[in-house]
C-alpha cells in the first residue's frame, strides 16, 4: 500500500516555522511582514485561493492587504497599483492572482512587480536566477513540490524524475529545482510520444499537466514516488463537484508514496507563499542577504534586490 504524503500536515509544520520567524522579527522590533494580494475580477476559484491566502497570513502574523479590482480594470490601472505597492516599504510581498482577465497581459503585469517583492517568483529576474541556479525567489508550488519530495526521499542524486507539464508556473521551475538537486530530469507533456513508457522508468513522477487521471496505474513502476499537482473540478456520479488530480489515485497502491488531491500540493503552495513573504521581509530588513532554501540543492546565492545590476 502506498504511503499518502500528507500535504496539509507538512504545510502546517512549515507554517509553525514561518510563525516563529515572524514572532522573532516582532521581538527584535521589526514591523510584521506585509503581503499585498491583488485579485482582478470574480473568478470563483481565484476568490477561494485568495481567501485562503489572507486567512493563512492571519494565522502566522503576516499583515495582508487585499486589492480587489473589477473585471474590466485596465492594464494601466493595474500597473499603476503595482508601481505604488513597489514603492511602499511596508509591502514586502506582492502577488497578482492568475488567471487575469483577457484585456491584461500577464507577462507585462507579473514583470512589473519588483523582483525582491515578487513572492510568487514569476518575475523574469527570479525565473532567470532559478534557471541559472543563482538564487532568487522560488515559485510557491514548485517549492512545495520539492518539500513534499524531501519528506520521503533523502537524496535526489541520480534519481530518474519525470515531470509531466511544461508550464512556466510549475513544470519548468520544478525541472530546474530537480536538476539543481542532481536528479536526472525528463520534462514531458501531453503530446509526448510514449509517455506511459517514459513514466514507467521513473523513480519519481511530478504530474502537472492539468489532465485528470492521466497517469494510470500501469504507468507507474513499483516503489515510485508520485507528486500530483493537478487539480480539476469534475462532477461525480452523485452529481456533486469533486476534485481530481492528474494521477489515478486508486490505481497506484504499488507506488511507495503519493500525494492526494485535495490535501497534497495545494496546501503547500500557500505555506510556501507565507514562507517566501517572510524571507523577502528578512532580506528587506537586512537580516539575510539571500532568500536561501531548505531542500537538497536549494540555491543559496544572494537575492537580486531589484536595484542596480544583477549580482554575479
Ligand atoms: N499568483 C498566483 N496565482 C495562482 C497560483 C499561484 O501560486 N500564484 N497558483 C494557482 C492557484 N493557487 C494559488 O494561488 C492554489 C491552488 C490550490 C490550492 C489548494 O490549497 N488547493 C486545495 C483544494 C482547494 C479547492 O480548490 O477547493 C488542495 O489541493 O488541497 C491553493 C492555492 C493558480 N493561480
UniProtKB/TrEMBL annotation:
Catalytic activity: (6R)-5,10-methenyltetrahydrofolate + H2O = (6R)-10-formyltetrahydrofolate + H(+); (6R)-5,10-methylene-5,6,7,8-tetrahydrofolate + NADP(+) = (6R)-5,10-methenyltetrahydrofolate + NADPH
A Pfam family that the UniProt record links to this protein: THF_DHG_CYH
Pathways per UniProt: One-carbon metabolism; tetrahydrofolate interconversion
Residue ranges annotated for the Tetrahydrofolate dehydrogenase/cyclohydrolase NAD(P)-binding domain, each copy included: 139-282
GO molecular function: methenyltetrahydrofolate cyclohydrolase activity; methylenetetrahydrofolate dehydrogenase (NADP+) activity
SUPFAM superfamilies registered for this protein in UniProt: Aminoacid dehydrogenase-like, N-terminal domain, NAD(P)-binding Rossmann-fold domains
GO biological process, alphabetically ordered: L-histidine biosynthetic process; methionine biosynthetic process; purine nucleotide biosynthetic process; tetrahydrofolate interconversion
Top-rank taxon, per record: Bacteria
Alphabetical list of CDD domains matching this protein: NAD_bind_m-THF_DH_Cyclohyd (cd01080)
Keyword Nucleus: no
Residue sites binding NADP(+) per the record: 165-167, 190, 231
Keyword Hydrolase: yes
Subunit structure: Homodimer.
Physiological role: Catalyzes the oxidation of 5,10-methylenetetrahydrofolate to 5,10-methenyltetrahydrofolate and then the hydrolysis of 5,10-methenyltetrahydrofolate to 10-formyltetrahydrofolate.
Protein's UniProt name: Bifunctional protein FolD
Species for this entry: Aurantiacibacter aquimixticola
Amino acid at each position: 500500500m502506498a504511503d499518502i504524503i500528507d500535504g496539509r500536515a507538512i504545510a502546517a509544520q512549515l507554517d509553525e516555522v514561518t510563525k516563529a520567524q515572524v514572532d522573532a522579527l516582532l521581538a527584535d522590533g521589526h514591523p510584521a511582514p506585509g503581503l499585498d494580494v491583488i485579485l482582478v475580477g470574480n473568478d470563483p476559484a481565484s476568490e477561494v485561493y485568495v481567501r485562503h491566502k489572507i486567512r493563512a497570513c492571519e494565522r502566522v502574523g503576516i499583515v495582508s492587504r487585499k486589492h480587489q479590482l473589477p473585471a474590466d480594470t485596465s492594464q494601466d490601472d493595474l500597473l499603476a497599483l503595482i508601481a505604488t505597492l513597489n514603492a511602499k516599504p511596508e509591502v514586502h510581498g506582492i502577488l497578482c492572482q492568475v488567471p487575469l482577465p483577457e484585456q491584461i497581459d500577464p507577462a507585462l503585469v507579473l514583470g512589473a512587480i519588483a523582483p525582491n517583492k515578487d513572492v510568487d517568483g514569476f518575475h523574469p529576474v527570479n525565473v532567470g536566477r532559478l534557471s541559472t541556479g543563482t538564487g532568487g525567489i522560488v515559485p510557491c508550488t514548485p517549492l512545495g513540490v520539492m518539500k513534499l519530495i524531501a519528506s520521503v526521499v533523502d537524496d535526489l542524486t541520480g534519481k530518474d524524475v519525470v515531470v509531466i507539464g511544461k508550464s512556466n508556473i510549475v513544470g519548468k521551475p520544478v525541472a530546474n529545482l530537480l536538476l539543481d538537486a542532481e536528479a536526472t530530469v525528463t520534462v514531458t507533456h501531453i503530446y509526448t510520444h510514449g509517455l506511459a513508457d517514459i513514466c514507467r522508468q521513473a523513480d519519481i513522477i511530478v504530474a502537472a499537466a492539468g489532465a485528470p487521471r492521466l497517469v494510470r496505474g500501469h504507468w507507474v513502476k513499483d516503489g515510485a514516488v508520485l507528486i500530483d499537482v493537478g487539480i480539476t473540478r469534475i462532477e461525480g456520479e452523485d452529481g456533486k463537484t469533486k476534485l481530481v488530480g492528474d494521477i489515478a489515485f486508486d490505481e497506484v497502491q504499488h507506488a511507495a508514496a503519493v500525494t492526494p488531491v485535495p490535501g497534497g500540493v495545494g496546501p503547500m503552495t500557500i505555506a510556501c507563499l507565507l514562507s517566501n513573504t517572510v524571507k523577502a521581509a528578512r532580506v528587506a530588513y537586512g537580516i539575510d542577504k539571500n532568500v536561501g532554501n531548505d531542500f537538497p540543492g536549494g540555491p543559496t546565492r544572494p537575492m537580486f534586490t531589484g536595484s542596480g545590476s544583477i549580482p554575479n
